[in-house]
Design brief:
With 137 residues, the chain is of the alpha+beta class. It is 23% helix and 18% strand. It has a three-stranded antiparallel beta sheet with strand order 2-3-5. The structure holds iron/sulfur cluster (2 copies). One iron/sulfur cluster (SF4) binds at residues 61-64, 66-67, 86, 91-97.
């Protein structure tokens, strides 16, 4: 009877003085791994627009079919996304879109705090994707 009690107390005291595994979130935040796949963002170009060339590879590869793109072509043959949208409600954060992008325009960042009251607000358009770029914040 006394042995299990002592074992329990030993466990309690070891844990009492060991490093806590919990943190005071949201005041304290954990560092995420470099390959963490959080909320998407667009890399910008020198004009402040996205460097996406509207090739459509991300749309094709996305297993959740949550990317919508309307491509436009300029006179010189340069392509750009007139409309680009990611529905993060359907996204499974697989990162395939970022892997497939030939110009590294779409990326998944470290932000894991992405909540809202309305589903519509969880849809990221071009402007929001650009604003999500951690270098812009
Ligand atoms: S992370 Fe995966 S599911 Fe989400 S938009 Fe990219 S390809 Fe689609
Ligand atoms: S984000 Fe990348 S893969 Fe997707 S359309 Fe633009 S350039 Fe192509």
């Amino acid at each position: 009877m006394i042995i299990p009690l002592l074992k329990g107390l030993r466990l309690t005291f070891t844990r009492l003085f060991s490093r806590p595994v919990t943190i005071q979130y949201p005041e304290q935040k954990r560092e995420v791994a470099p390959r963490w796949r959080g909320v998407h963002y667009f890399e910008g170009n020198e004009k402040g627009d996205t460097c996406c060339v509207a090739c459509g590879l991300c749309v094709t590869i996305c297993p959740s079919q949550c990317i919508r793109l309307v491509a436009r072509e300029l006179e010189g043959g340069e392509r750009y996304p007139e409309f680009y949208e990611i529905n993060t409600v359907r996204c499974i954060y697989c990162g395939y879109c970022a892997e497939a992008c030939p110009v590294n325009a779409i990326k998944l960042g470290g932000n894991y705090e992405f909540v809202d009251y309305r589903r519509d607000d969880l849809v990221l358009d071009k402007e929001r994707l650009l604003a999500n770029n951690p270098q812009e914040v």
